[in-house]
Amino acid sequence: MLEVEDLRVTYGGAVEALRGVTLAVPDGKVVAVLGSNGAGKTTLLRAVSSVLRLHRGRVESGSVTFDGKSLLGKDPSQVVDLGLVQVPEGRRIFSRLTVEENLRAGGMGARDKSAKKAAQQRVYDLFPVLAERRTGRAGLLSGGEQQMLAIGRALMAAPKVLLLDEPSLGLAPRIIGQIGEIIHEINRQGTSVLLVEQNATMALEVADLAYVLDVGEVSLQGDAKELAATDEVQKLYLGHGSDADEVHAVVSTGKTLSRWTA
Ligand SMILES: Nc1ncnc2c1ncn2[C@@H]1O[C@H](COP(=O)(O)OP(=O)(O)OP(=O)(O)O)[C@@H](O)[C@H]1O
Ligand SMILES: [Mg+2]
């Protein structure tokens, strides 16, 4: 279980991005963290992945533990070795490399060849479109396909906990629905997920538990479906626009993965 307790994070010693955040990702669950721009969602993932230093950020107090072991002060690669792998915001893939080269880059830390092969097969089974395009340049993939590649690359490290930073960003509602389905499937295969999102419709659809982050503090938390029904979340995050309804329709029908080949 991943546990964050009373976490305070600052940037450049001044900006207080997280102010006493406590949350948990129990094994086998999908946990969503909702929040608008600047709420501290990315900061939370950076703290877990131990990359705050690269952004002039610092943990002032509190703790981040995985299965009881502290992640604070670890090298980012040690956090990956422990099984926590982040898909960064803006899906930073290597656009000049092929799809397969991108995946190989994600499997660099894997212990042996057969584990790597199995991880790659898992990715190609989840995303048939990546298998089809394996020798093609990653930069030529559509936005949705690039997001799939970014997720696939993280899966190459066989994570116990997958950390996703706004995977829906900039994608059409139909594609967001597909991303939601794939998160559900990855979780079904045994990987816990910490999903940070502004798109509450998709996130609450796939999550078991959810937290709302409001300017660095948790303002609401609970069962994802119960939270989705509250007035506050309805009003602030689930405007009943056509986009939201469309994502809901795609995620909740839970259609088969065959559509990924389209
Ligand atoms: N490298 C940095 N240096 C200084 N301040 C930063 C840095 N990164 C983030 N911040 C500030 O920390 C706060 C939280 O930012 P963060 O990026 O975690 O929010 P977010 O919820 O991920 O927002 P978004 O939805 O826009 O991605 C904001 O006030 C932001 O301006
Ligand atoms: Mg962010």
What's this entry about, in short?
The chain has 262 residues and is an alpha/beta fold.
Helical proportion? 25-40%
Unreliable runs: 254-262
Task: Return the CATH architecture.
Answer: 3-Layer(aba) Sandwich
Structural class, please?
alpha/beta
**What fold name goes in the CATH topology slot?**
Rossmann fold
Question: What kind of sheet is the major sheet?
Answer: 6 strands, mixed
Order of helices and strands: EEEHEEHEHHHHEHEHEEHHH
Strands, count: 10
- Beta-strand residue percentage: 25-35%
Corresponding CATH superfamily: P-loop containing nucleotide triphosphate hydrolases
GO molecular function, one term: ATP binding
Family: Belongs to the ABC transporter superfamily.
Domain ABC transporter: 2-240
Pfam family, one: ABC_tran
Describe the overall structure.
With 262 residues, the protein is α/β, with parallel strands linked by helices. The chain has a single domain, classed as 3-Layer(aba) Sandwich (Rossmann fold). 40% of the residues lie in helices and 25% in strands. The protein has 11 helices and 10 strands. The strands form 2 sheets. The chain has a 6-stranded mixed β-sheet with strand order 6-7-8-3-9-10, with helices on both faces. Helix 7 packs parallel to helix 11. The protein is globular. The site of magnesium ion has 4 residues, from helix 1. The site of adenosine-5'-triphosphate has 16 residues, from strand 2 and helix 1.
